[in-house]
Amino acid sequence: MKKTTSLDELIEITKDILRTKYASAEFAFLSGSFVRGEATAFSDLDVVVIYKQLPNAFRESFYFRNFPVEAFVHTPETLNYFYEADAKDFVPSLTAMVAEGVEVPAKTDLSARLKHSANEFLSRPPKISVEEIRNFRGWLTDLVDDIRAPRSKAESTASGTTLYAALAGFYLRANGAWSAKSKTIPRALRKLNPDFQRRFCESFERLFVAGETEAVIKLTEELLAPHGGFLFDGLRLDAPADWRKPVE
After folding, report:
1. What is the pTM of this model?
2. Phi and psi for 166 in degrees, rounded to 5?
């Protein structure tokens, strides 16, 4: 599969994508790992395509000149909606694509406004609440208990996988940053604190490779200590009052 690291070539390919598939679009933001210079042989070409009007936003995948392409097709109004959806999930995926994106075929007043809006949005991560901290404490306590004395390395790995994402999410949110998921977790941790990212990754590598739990447990304990530590006794999580359905 052909790959390239030339931004100029990527821009020309994106222009051809617009001409071929999205001829009436205003412009596109070329984004993702190719733009960051982090692409692998299997990376997608991420393109956020902007129209003035659409019946609905959509996402589609296809190959173009041997490149796997992920297209996120929007209007300014649907972008705003998805920004809010990102905020509810605490992971600003689409917002970051626009903020870091390169305008194709060229910068316009509208593209500049959309990038400004995305950057403004990213500059204000939602603050973690007291209730969220309490919920994280209970969740992380349960996950750590699952790896303290696992019945097998397979169980340790399975529980550790969930703990990896949960602990990273707690650290990022508790330190005033957006959360992250999947492969973006190490990148987000490195941006916030390279030393912590190194320790985090080393601790989980010991868990996943050798089944050693001590480093991960100690790391979790240290992160929770300023917020009251592990929490089990007295934890209560109330469901909304309208979460009920009549029995027929």
Report:
1. 0.86
2. -65, -45
